Write the structure tokens for this entry.
Amino acid sequence: MSEIEGGEHPDAETLAAYHARELPEEDERRVRGHLLVCRDCAGLLLDLEALDDPGFGREVEIPAGTGEAVWKRLRQEIRDHPRPEKETVIPFSPRRGTAPPPWMPALAAALLVAVVGLSAWVASLRRTVDELSRPEINAPVLDLLPRGIGPRDEGAAPIAEVPADARIFTLILSPVRRGDFQGYEAEIAPTGGAAVVWREKDLRPNDYGSFSLTVPRRALGGGEHRLRLFGIGRGGDRELLGDYVFRLVP
Amino acid sequence: MSESDASLQQILDAIQAGRAVEESFRLLCERYYRPLYAFFAHRGFAHADCLDLTQETFLGIYRGIDSFRRDARFETWLFKVATNAFRKRLRHGVADKRSGEEVSLDTAPGADDGRSPVQPVAKDPLPGDSLLQAERSRLLREAVDRLPDQMRKCLILNVYQDFKVREIAQLLHLSPETVKVHLFQARRRLQKTLGPYFAGPLPSRGEASS
């Protein structure tokens, strides 16, 4: 604000701000100083104070027809310069105009498929966990003999069979020979197929030097299978300790 | 928000949205033409000027309605527009007077008797009276200047500007009670300081403002 005091009158904005007590302290002091010497500005402020008072200006005699005369000119202005009606705008996101990137639908579809697949997998896992958690009564225990040893080599011994209703079964493996191995492992593959469908590492022999292996049926599928037991030497090399055959009744 | 505030908001909403503008402005005009007319009458304008300035103010409101953001009261905005119209009129009035034709006082119409048309309205005061008056004025001015700031301002607005207690309170953002106390104490101090120099009661408005 420029210097006021006695000379320049504060503008309407400044007077209104003084009235609302929104001026900085220094400006307020200047306006107050000006009011001491300027009756006009003091009068303006007093009128501002009283403007919203319903009784303001009652003492002023207003000739009849004044209101109509004011309105007449104003109406003319309104008709000469009409205000355009504004369209109703529905407030929305500021990014309303921007289209989504072209890969967005593909990404959304892929995410949907992934979520559905994941849900199915989780449901299947739950079923498996539930199934395995159930106690199995009279689960079969098969004492397997290595091939090349015992009666089967003579063609008399039948292949050990896992009944169709057994969810899990235990195989007892007796190795052909014993040695100083640092570990043991077993792997199962369908007879005639090369792919291993089940493998168990870190096997430990029991007090009798044999191994017991509990296998869930669903890990293998039906048909004849071949199980091989290996001893792991110090150098990491594997040595075949037994080759067994058993059959899962479908 | 009072009922009248609510209806004012509705009127302003309609005008700003461009809906039923004529009807809404008519309501605005009915509501504010009296206080606006009085505002200009208080400034000493004759009826024709008051009417003209009231119309001008409403036109300013109509043309600038989009700039009214509702963060201040509508009456405050009305005051600003009216004050600007008033100040503009004053400036033009001064300019009109400056551009008026110059007339010699010696040859003014009706000065055919050879006398100057400007006659002294009163005789000069006696030299002694004048000196005494000047001395009393100086003493009074000095005593007023020595008063505490707020007390001095209250006294000046009351004695020199002739404002009432309620008005001084509004102008200085004080309570009327505070103004009354300031005025009472100011008079007592002046009486005490200037008593020996003034025979009568102190100060009368006419004397203080001379």
In short: The helical segments of chain A are 12-19, 25-37, 39-50, 66-80, 104-133. The mean pLDDT of chain A is 83. Chain A touches chain B through 48 residues (CB under 8 Å). Residues 1-52 of chain A form one domain.
